[in-house]
Write a structure and sequence with these properties.
alpha+beta, 4 helices, 6-stranded mixed sheet, 4-stranded antiparallel sheet, 157 residues
Amino acid sequence: MNHTRIQAVLVVVHGVGILVRGRPGSGKSLAALNLMRKGHRLISDDLVEVTPGPDGEPRGRAVEEQARIEVRGLGIFKAETLFPNATASSSPINLVIDLDAYDPEKDAGRIVPETGRMELLGREILTVRVPVPNGLDPAVIIELLAKRFRESGSVSP
C-alpha cells in the first residue's frame, strides 16, 4: 500500500481537510486547539499518516488509534478529552498551509497569498504560505483560508 507520514497537523475546517505544516513552535498545535474550541475537527497533531482514499485522493489519519494533542508546557492529551466532539478519524487532504515566521522585508504590504503546489501520493495539492508574527495564533487565518477554498477552490481574494 502506498503511504507516507508527514510532520504536521491535520484539521477539518469548514469541511476542508487542511494539512498545517511549520517549524516546531510555529503555532500548529495552538491553532488546532483554538479551531477545536470553535467546533472544527482535529484528525492528527504532530504526525499524519497519509494513504490513498477510495478515489486515490490523499487521506490523512493519526498514527495512533486516538488523536493526541500537545499543549506546550502542560503535556500531551487525548484530544477527545479536551473537546469531545472535535475529533474525527480521517479526512481527505484538500489544502496545505505552511506556517512561516513573519519577515518584515518580505511580508510587509503583501496583498496576494503566496501559493504553490505539492505532490502527495500522485495528486497535486494547493499550498499557501502564511507568515505568522511572533505570538499570533494563526487559527483565524486558517478559518478564513478554509472558507475561501471551500467557496472558490482558491485562496486568492
